Amino acid sequence: MSHTKFLTRCLQLATYANGRTSPNPMVGAVLVYKGQIIGEGYHHRAGEPHAEVMAINSVQDQSLLTSSTLYCSLEPCAHYGKTPPCSVLITESRIPKVVIGCSDSNDLVNGKGIAHLKSHGVEVVLSENPAAFRELNRVFFCNKDLKRPFVSAKWAQSIDGYLDRLRTKNERATLISGPLASLKTHQLRATADGILVSAKTLNWDQPSLSTRNYFGRNPRPIVLVSSYLPDESALQKLSSPPLFVGNAAMLEGDKIVCDPQAIEHWLPKLLDFGIHHVLVEGGGRVLQSFFDTGCVDEWHRYTSLHTLSSGIPAPDLKLSGTASNLGEDCYERG
Ligand SMILES: NC(=O)c1ccc[n+]([C@@H]2O[C@H](COP(=O)([O-])OP(=O)(O)OC[C@H]3O[C@@H](n4cnc5c(N)ncnc54)[C@H](OP(=O)(O)O)[C@@H]3O)[C@@H](O)[C@H]2O)c1
């Protein structure tokens, strides 16, 4: 029988916890007996039981485990953390076969889960198409493989490629995109741990950087400080106290004191503040410098039908992504 159906169900289950498992991966698991699902589970949040434990515990007739196949979206763990290793639970439950979406490159696992299963006589099958499973946990794999947060970049631009008209600080920002783009942005914010702007954009736009148009948590504001110091009035409007990056020695609060232009230098340090996924919301120079440094893992662009003719240039992007209509805007993701 094809494993696709049950592995797809694992993916579905895993995404129920989207945005809530950091710093852990999202994982789903399914137990199958004679072609029928008899147990399901997913990892709800860090510190809580893993997907395999939830799935095994959900099986009413535990005697069926010895004749069942366990499907899981990620290699079962092999280390003692806040919970005992899942690979040990699987062998103690005498489950004879395990089908895995993708292996876990986390140093603590990295093949050890599979090795434990095989050494205890469990038949292990790895999916022939691990891409979807790695994509599900792209934040987690970026953290483990590149030792830095996953970076999403987002902006709204006019059809002729500007983020805003040229204006003074006291003039209001140009409203570029429509309400559906705002909704989509707030959905994205709910999945990020941190949201990054420059002190210039903070002072000029006075944003709250909150997830107010969607359900979920607010990402922590991160403010790049160099020639512009953040205004007290702008800081007051933020959803929570920010983390400063830059020449911020004189500012009260959490900070990484360094040259904010040296992105590769300070980006990994965000992990120490629990920021595993950062959303860069501009402005133009900050977005461009993230692209120039090669530190953007994913981007979201909203293009409106407005023409501005001149202004703050949007990132100069040679790539194209998948495009769809979002109300009056074109939404692209790459
Ligand atoms: N449409 C949108 O989606 C959107 C989103 C955000 C902002 N905006 C608009 O964009 C405008 C601001 O954009 P902008 O390009 O003028 O300024 P910006 O990119 O917001 O900020 C530039 C400032 O950030 C400092 N900075 C610190 N670290 C940096 C780094 N790693 N890379 C680049 N700069 C860094 C620069 O310092 P130095 O001076 O020391 O070089 C400079 O003072 C505003 O009008 C705002 O309303 C639009």
Side-by-side strand order of the widest sheet? 11-10-9-8-12-6-13-16-15
Mass-distribution shape:
elongated
Distinct ligands, ions and cofactors found in the model: NADP nicotinamide-adenine-dinucleotide phosphate
Low-confidence stretches: none
Q: Can you give the mean pLDDT? A: 95
Per DSSP, the total helix count is 11
> What is the rounded distance between the termini?
35 Å
Number of strands: 16
Largest sheet: 9 strands, mixed
Q: Tell me the β content.
A: 15-25%
Name of the CATH class of the largest domain: Alpha Beta
CATH topology of the largest domain: Dihydrofolate Reductase, subunit A
Helix content: 25-40%
Give the CATH architecture of the largest domain.
3-Layer(aba) Sandwich
Number of domains: 2
C-alpha Rg (nearest Å):
23 Å
From the helix content, strand content and strand pairing, which structural class follows?
alpha/beta
How would you describe this structure to a colleague?
By secondary structure, the chain is α/β, with parallel strands linked by helices. The chain folds into 2 domains: 138 residues, Cytidine Deaminase, domain 2, CATH 3.40.140; 186 residues, Dihydrofolate Reductase, subunit A (3-Layer(aba) Sandwich). Helix content is 26%, strand content 24%. It contains 11 helices and 16 strands. It has a 9-stranded mixed sheet, with helices on both faces. A hairpin with a 2-residue loop joins strand 1 and strand 2. The longest helix is centred in the N-terminal third of the chain and has 12 residues. The protein is elongated and about 70 Å long. The chain starts with a helix and ends with a strand. The mean pLDDT is 95. Bound molecules: NADP nicotinamide-adenine-dinucleotide phosphate.
